[in-house]
Amino acid sequence: MVTMPAPSPRARRSVVAELEGGLLRGADTFPYFMLVAFEASGLPRFAALLALWPLLRLLELAGRGGLALRAAALVATAGVPRAEVEAVSRAVLPKFMADDVDPRAWAAFGACEGRRVVVATRLPRVMVERFAREHLGAHEVVGCELEYSRLRRCTGLLKGGGEGEAVADRVRALFAGGDRPDLGIGRSEMVRSFSPFCKEQLEPPFTAGAATTSAAAPPFRPVIFHDGRLVCRPTAFMSLVILLWLPLGALVAFVRIAVGLMVPIWTIPHIAPIFGGVVITHGRAPPAVHAAAEEDGGGGSPSGVLFVCTHRTLMDPVVLATVLGRRVAAVTYSISRLSEVLSPIPTVRLTRDREVDAARMRAELARGDVAVCPEGTTCREPFLLRFSALFAELSDRIVPVAMNYRVGLFHPTTARGWKAMDPIFFFMNPRPVYEVTFLNQLPAEATCAAGRSPVDVANYVQRILAATLGFECTSLTRKDKYRVLAGNDGIVNAAKPAAPGKAAWQSRVKEVLGFLLH
């Protein structure tokens, strides 16, 4: 096939593109099967698939890529509930695929204003369909299918789409009206079976001519919400690193947590480098404010400082308290019992009842400083979710704090997994880094005391925090996140409760299995 310069974007009305090695820079699909194995099943299956990697590589070198695909799918998915595979495909895989999109391929693909078809040649359709439709704007996705048993579990077998001619027939069937695709993008042998059906063809490496369509292509839709514990793409090498680090990482996490619970809180930023952690502080922390209300006979305003933080991990209020070196109460909508036990600072559960929550926060402010994260949930990407305006009604002594973190191996947040493991995964990273930036206290004219509405105050705080971090403000909420990642509204215990004895037994089993398998 000859690489051809891209025609004018107006001339293109339809496109058929290969995903692996076409729209995505890399053609290696092994990391995606590793992600499914780890996130949908656990560590044993993850290790088993890694052990199979040499055989898979030999099959590919021998020209038996189809057999390698079937073997990887069998080990990664056999016996896994269908809902788990679909959840991982929805919440985990899109982030890794988005990071690997070829900008020039997207420029050519996105510039087509008509029908867009994505062909998955090395992955089951269920693993790519969410990403292709939601982020690439595909109208149709062609690929092989996973088979399921009557119990809605994967058999590990694939059907359809495995041969070049079969894929070509399915592509031609989509254009049965006689209107051939204007452009075909891809490079594999399977793509060559249907590329002659397209009026023009492009294959990597794309020429400079393909980049000329970037002005006509719509902006690539970023992945704002994603789940899963692994930070790095689990190539064979990185997967081996993760497996070797896990036992040592668990020990390191235990030592870090034990030391953090035993030493005075103000010493933690100073001793963190000894244990591989880093806490970076910018700006000037406000001094403690004593109880003015008591001095005025109980009629004064709340005495504490209200720290309004960006919400990156469960550790945000804890790190803030260690930097301040004093008691700071953390208010949160949901926190696991284990996290409450491990927390070195007081935690206050909110109920989502506005009056009740306001009363609880006022009571804590009367005792001292309070840390609140108005986003209501964490976001891993450089975006800030919509701020709840409740905090603006409670105090005029508001100090915005920009929190951010960096980790190398494991994400310390989850929407689908066991939240009790969040602090443990954070401390399992070889070198966790936290960055705390104190902004100036809001002037009186920027608070509700000057007649501004709580919503205006919340939006103003969101904007200055986003500008400090270089993030983008959004109007997305906690509900949006959990609908994308978990298929619910993110309300704990929203489902019908089980019997008391059964619920307790299930909770214990989940915690034990979560620690062993993840």
From TrEMBL:
Chain ranges of the Phospholipid/glycerol acyltransferase domain: 305-406
Coiled coil regions in record: none
Location of the protein in the cell: Membrane
Entry protein name: Glycerol-3-phosphate acyltransferase 5-like
Family designation: Belongs to the GPAT/DAPAT family.
GO cellular component terms attached to this protein's record: membrane
Topology class, membrane: Multi-pass membrane protein
Organism of origin: Panicum miliaceum
Predominant location: membrane
